[in-house]
Design brief:
It is built from 17 helices and no strands. By secondary structure, it is mainly alpha-helical.
Length: about 300
């Protein structure tokens, strides 16, 4: 279906240039977007085929795993456009889609400015769930029987509450709490789980959430294997947004430092401790200055409620 759509665009190009020069810029944007989407679609199809053939997730590259993770959402968002634009006079849907790119188009069709705008808007919504997660970490710490571990996790929570980042060593010292009670993904409440899922923008279903976070773990491993400093600037930007950090205003070196710190955690995680990776945006980014700048200011009644 996608290939036929590409052929349709190629045949109509001269017609659009001659008769509708004012919309050619929009058409050109769609053409570039379709080219990028078709390229990713071929990667996705190859990954799916090789997975069916018995290949393991650890055998794929970072780009392949990122495409495998994000393309299904892009595909379903574009499906109405692909169907409608293929019928007679269906190309008139182009300007409409371009007017609402955030809802009708995938990232393949966004300008660099739009990507930053939309990714930032998504991150703002995700950051809203950080405070409930911190409170859940604090609440569940009372069920920890090991006094030493309880003291360590409460120290981390105290730092987060005061907008101070815990060190990677401090986080890894409490990893066992995420292997089992009280923070394992299978042992937390539905409400707690929903906040964690929304802090990533992932599925709210427990099984699907496990699959998504496991894919991120393998993407981390591939990224480390290929070398984080080799990432292009737009790839660094996207990688930071996916992992909960607002990279806008940060230098390239600062973005690389964050991803290295992130992977120092994820490289010590396996399927049994996947819940720690699920908490990582809160642990590693909630006190970042660029993230704090995105937080909504609390209303007067919210402040009074917290104080009481």
């Amino acid at each position: 279906m996608v290939k036929k759509q590409m052929d349709f665009y190629k045949k109509s190009e001269n017609h659009v240039v001659l008769r509708y020069p004012k919309v050619y810029k929009i058409y050109h944007t769609f053409k570039a977007g379709m080219k990028g989407f078709f390229h990713d679609f071929k990667i996705y199809y190859r990954v799916i085929t090789e997975l069916w053939g018995g290949k393991d997730l650890s055998d794929f590259s970072r780009v392949e795993l990122e495409v495998y993770t994000h393309l299904p959402k892009a595909f379903w968002r574009l499906t109405p456009l692909l169907v409608v634009s293929g019928i007679p006079f269906g190309s008139s849907v182009f300007p409409l889609a371009y007017m609402f790119p955030r809802f009708l188009l995938s990232h393949h069709f966004w300008t660099p400015e739009q990507r930053i705008q939309f990714y930032t808007q998504d991150l703002k919504k995700q950051i809203e769930h950080y405070s409930p997660i911190i409170q859940s970490l604090k609440f569940h710490s009372r069920h920890i029987t090991d006094d030493n571990l309880q003291k360590k996790i409460r120290k981390i929570v105290g730092k987060l509450e005061h907008n101070v980042l815990p060190t990677t060593d401090e986080i890894l010292q409490v990893k066992s709490l995420f292997n089992g009670s009280p923070y394992h993904i299978d042992r937390i409440s539905i409400t707690y789980l929903r906040h964690l899922a929304k802090s990533y923008g992932m599925s709210l279903r427990r099984k699907k959430l496990k699959q998504s976070i496991l894919l991120l773990l393998y993407t981390d491993k591939a990224m480390v294997k290929e070398g984080i400093p080799t990432l292009l600037n737009d790839e660094l930007e996207r990688a930071c947004f996916v992992r909960g950090l607002n990279p806008i205003g940060l230098r390239r070196e600062e973005r690389i430092t964050f991803l290295i710190r992130w992977t120092q955690i994820s490289q010590n995680i396996d399927e049994s401790s996947i819940s720690l990776l699920l908490h990582s945006p809160v642990l590693l980014t909630s006190a970042q200055p660029t993230n704090l700048s995105l937080k909504k200011k609390k209303s007067r009644w919210q402040k009074v409620s917290e104080e009481t």
